[in-house]
Specification:
By secondary structure, this protein is an alpha/beta fold.
Length: 132
């Protein structure tokens, strides 16, 4: 009887550990701030300008993370980043952001805004078309 109770308690704690463990990978998205915004001046960048409280930005976040996992590797043709506009308003003002989320691509100093569907395939196609 004691053995069954012990096993039951052990399995309960094991279940609790599994449920509350954080197995998420660290984000591959580069966070642009006032201190590192000069990174956008060199190389090619796809970046989201948005707000953490925006429902549309929250919906886009896992898609952007998947894109970052694909592109934020050594010698990639583009880096993936994001700016939290309420916190770093001066960056978003520079890029004339009027709605969240806004996705932009910088290639050789020129900025292009993405206007298509905010899904993985559409954004990757946009990157590939502009960076061939």
């Amino acid at each position: 009887m004691m053995k069954k109770i012990f096993i039951s308690i052990f399995l309960f704690f094991l279940l609790v550990c599994v449920v509350f463990s954080n197995n998420d990978q660290p984000s591959k998205i580069i966070k642009i701030t006032d201190e590192n915004s000069d990174l956008l001046l060199t190389g090619n960048w796809l970046f989201k300008l948005g707000a953490t409280w925006s429902a549309h930005c929250k919906k886009l976040q896992p898609i952007l993370e998947k894109i970052a996992q694909h592109f934020n590797i050594e010698n990639s043709k583009v880096k993936v980043a994001q700016v939290d506009c309420p916190q770093y308003n001066s960056i978003c003002e520079k890029y004339k952001i009027i709605g969240y989320p806004t996705i932009k691509l910088i290639k050789e100093g020129e900025t292009e805004e993405y206007g298509g569907q905010k899904n993985f395939d559409g954004i990757v196609q946009f990157i590939n078309e502009h960076l061939e």
